[in-house]
Amino acid sequence: MQTPIRRRRRASSRAGFTLIEVMVATMITAALAVALVNVALTTKTTSVMLDRKVLAGQATKALQSALKAYVTGDPLSVKSGLCGPNTYNGAPLACNTNMWCLTNAVQVDTTQPGGANACYALNPGTHTIYCNASGEDSRCVLPWALRQPPYNGYVVYTVTGSPPKVTINVNWTEP
Fold this sequence. Notes:
Number of domains: 1
Shape: rod-shaped
Number of strands: 4
Mean pLDDT: 75
Distance between the termini: 93 Å
Helix content: 25-40%
Largest sheet: 4 strands, antiparallel
Low-confidence stretches: 114-118
Structural class: alpha+beta
Strand order of the largest sheet: 1-2-3-4
């Protein structure tokens, strides 16, 4: 008599993943990829914004340095024959009111508190400084990268009190 041979099912030697396992692994990978891209974009954006803040800090330091030369002067010094610190104003060297002003061939103080004849850099009030240079120019307090479009930067400083106290703000348009 023959005994029937039972065939046992053996466990497959080819182990695989179920559809659920594949979906979960895909979702985890996608979530990690989105997080990494978000971190990279945030880092890039923050880095670019910090670059502009560094440029604004440079403009602030340049204006502070320029204004230190004006502390000892006053608009009436021209009458006494004292030349101001701005010896390069696009004209031959001669003592005049413009030498006590931050305005030069490329930089303009649009406000000039006290009127056009009182162009003293430390006149009380608010001064707005723009630079009209088409490229890098050491006569501008604002770096070229910050004053060109789309940023169109400018400096506003306010002078109060005696001795003068100066508050400086650098403004630009964030694209």
